[in-house]
Design a protein that fits this description.
The chain is α+β, with helices and mostly antiparallel strands. It contains 4 helices and 16 strands. The protein is elongated and about 70 Å long. The termini are far apart.
Length: 237
């Protein structure tokens, strides 16, 4: 029993070593820490009864812990052959698997797989395939709830189109949600991109749609949890 307990602790420590904070959260975390410390200090020195201070201090710790959790950035490496493989670009849950008409770039039918990210998920986004970035575009829009069907075309969004070494064209679309107000995209037209590299980051909950050629083999099912840069969501022909 003691050996199992010790092994469990060691495994958790190893996982912690592989987690770092994303650079997109640096300024927010520093500013938030200064603000929370200042508010708590004013309350501590400004009132005689310390009960409200202890309550606020506890709330502040919880809020800051949630923010740190949101901006965590696990170090992940895809351990398999990447040829014709489509990897989940984000942590979250599969909310859509269907053929749709894509009108902004392809102007035709494509297979769409959508991953919804809750506020508790890692929000770093990875490239879903190896290839060359052919197109990058950003569209301003609304901030509806990210799981709604219209969010793909009406919300603020950023698209990254990639041509794979085999000649397939894949698009990953980052979509803002009701809470998410900032989409960061690192991809630049003409550059090589690879699975294991970060494509971007979405702050505070949203979704990522992946558009694939018709006939692509789907490797996930509705409601399935995904791990960014680990879960294989599809295999190209």
């Amino acid at each position: 029993m003691h050996d199992n307990w010790f092994s469990s602790i060691m495994n958790r420590l190893k996982k912690l070593k592989k987690i770092r904070l994303h650079r997109e959260g640096t300024s927010i975390l520093i500013a938030s820490a200064i603000l929370l410390i200042a508010i708590n200090a004013l309350l501590y020195w400004g009132i005689e009864c310390k009960v409200p201070f202890y309550i606020l201090a506890a709330i502040s710790v919880i809020i800051y812990a949630l923010m740190v959790n949101f901006f965590r950035c696990p170090i992940r490496r895809f351990e398999h052959d990447t040829e014709k493989i489509v990897v989940a670009p984000a942590d979250g849950k599969i909310v859509v698997i269907e053929e749709v008409d894509e009108h902004e770039y392809f102007h035709g039918r494509r297979l769409m797989i959508s991953i919804f990210m809750s506020i508790t998920n890692v929000h770093a986004n990875w490239y879903p395939v190896d290839g060359v970035v052919k197109h990058v575009d950003h569209h301003n829009g609304r901030f509806m709830k990210a799981w709604l069907p219209k969010a793909s075309t009406e919300n603020e969004r950023s698209m990254v189109v990639i041509e794979t070494p085999e000649g397939h064209t894949v698009m990953a679309r980052q979509i803002a949600g009701a809470v998410a107000r900032r989409i960061v995209t690192y991809a630049e037209k003409g550059e090589d991109c690879y699975i294991d590299e970060h494509m971007g980051f979405i702050k505070f909950g949203s979704r990522v749609d992946v558009y694939l050629p018709l006939g692509t083999e789907v490797c996930v099912k509705m409601g399935q949890a995904t791990t960014g840069n680990e879960t294989i969501i599809a295999k190209l022909k």
